[in-house]
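Record passed on here:
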Amino acid sequence: MKIVVDRDLCIGAASCVALAAKTFGLDVEGKAYILNEKKDTAVTSSEGTVVESEQTGDMDPREAIIEGARSCPVFAIKLYEDDGTEIIL
């Protein structure tokens, strides 16, 4: 599974951290980021900054990551299957 966090959308509600604390954290700016990143990519464009990472064994189980992403009040987290299909939250 690929995890994508749009840091410009993030408002620091921390619900993702509460539900998936081994996967998400808040940085000093109060923005969500991905813990234990593997193959992370930070992309900055006219649309903002997006951080991507593959799920690793040190992260929460798939179901907890989905619940953490689903809990985001501004939809700043998107999840994708390995084949690129978006997981509908």
